């Protein structure tokens, strides 16, 4: 019971994810303060008079040119919708299996909690540098105008979308390594979409890919993440028809145990709310 109470406290203290339709709290593997500090090890964004920024400008115009390719422009617009829903929609095909909370709960769980944890690594540098985005500097519209008011208030460096896309690609490649080339290609494309849309500089995207790799390495120091990743890989093998009878039996046992634990946890939280409501009335 003591262990169950601790789990409930962790759940109630979990990070809330606002970038997806699933409104349940996200139990991140690490806090922002526990993630590597990009300000201390990642180069600052280029100044506006050097060759690195000249390359950023060249890539901005490359992105505008790519908008002439309607198919690629449409992909960039789809990628502009930030969140796990977009990741699931765009990565299920290269992953080789439909990902959903209902059909692949273990994969969904590690993807949701893992990417939310990785995302926190960009919180400090975005706030610290508050870099102007290309569409602001050139005073030109993006391919996704609905985001522009929010983007004006949010630093450009590093790219949060790219960080989400690349960390998702790394995670899914670990679950299904046979499709790694296809998954990573889509992850690379996801970051390039930010340049095509006009929301980010090339250096924002490059820094985000580096940050995602550092954040993903940090995830592997969490025993809880490693256990969830083991369950996700196990689930993938079962769903793909690759599992042995022993693996299938172990997976079903783990799922049943998880269901029982979740049921007890929900009951405990319900009781806690009821006691709190009674106390307030008294």
List keywords for this structure.
282 residues, mainly alpha, Vanadium-containing Chloroperoxidase, domain 1, 14 helices
Quick overview of this protein structure:
This protein has 282 residues and is an all-alpha fold. It has 14 helices and no strands. It has a single domain (48-258), classed as Phosphatidic acid phosphatase type 2/haloperoxidase (Vanadium-containing Chloroperoxidase, domain 1, Up-down Bundle), CATH 1.20.144.10.
Structure description:
With 282 residues, this protein is an all-alpha fold. The protein has one domain: Vanadium-containing Chloroperoxidase, domain 1. The protein has 14 helices and no strands. Helix 3 (51-66) packs across helix 11 (180-197), helix 4 crosses helix 11 (180-197) and helix 6 (105-119) crosses helix 12 (202-219). The longest helix is centred in the C-terminal third of the chain and has 37 residues, at 245-281. The protein is globular and about 60 Å long. It starts with a helix and ends with a helix. The model is unreliable at 1-19 (pLDDT under 50).
């Amino acid at each position: 019971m003591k262990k169950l109470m601790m789990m409930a406290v962790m759940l109630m203290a979990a990070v809330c994810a606002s970038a997806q339709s699933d409104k349940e709290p996200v139990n991140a593997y690490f806090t922002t303060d526990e993630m590597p500090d990009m300000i201390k090890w990642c180069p600052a964004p280029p100044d506006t008079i050097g060759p690195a920024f000249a390359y950023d400008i060249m890539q901005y115009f490359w992105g505008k040119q790519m908008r002439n390719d309607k198919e690629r422009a449409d992909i960039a617009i789809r990628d502009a919708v930030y969140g796990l829903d977009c990741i699931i929609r765009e990565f299920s095909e290269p992953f080789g299996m439909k990902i959903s909370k209902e059909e692949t709960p273990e994969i969904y769980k590690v993807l949701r909690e893992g990417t939310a944890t990785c995302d926190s690594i960009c919180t400090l540098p975005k706030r610290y540098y508050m870099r102007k985005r290309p569409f602001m500097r050139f005073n030109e519209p993006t391919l996704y105008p609905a985001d522009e008011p929010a983007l004006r208030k949010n630093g450009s460096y590093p790219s949060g979308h790219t960080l989400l896309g690349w960390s998702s690609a790394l995670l899914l490649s670990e679950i299904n390594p046979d499709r790694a080339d296809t998954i990573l290609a889509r992850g690379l494309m996801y970051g390039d979409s930010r340049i095509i849309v006009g929301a980010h500089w090339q250096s924002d995207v490059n820094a985000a890919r580096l940050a995602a790799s550092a954040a993903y390495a940090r995830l592997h120091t969490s025993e809880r993440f490693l256990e969830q990743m083991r369950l996700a890989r196990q689930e993938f093998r079962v769903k793909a028809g690759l599992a042995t009878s022993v693996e299938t039996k172990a997976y079903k046992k783990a799922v049943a145990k998880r269901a029982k634990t979740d049921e007890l946890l929900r009951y405990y939280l319900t009781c806690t709310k009821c006691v709190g409501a009674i106390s307030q009335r008294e």
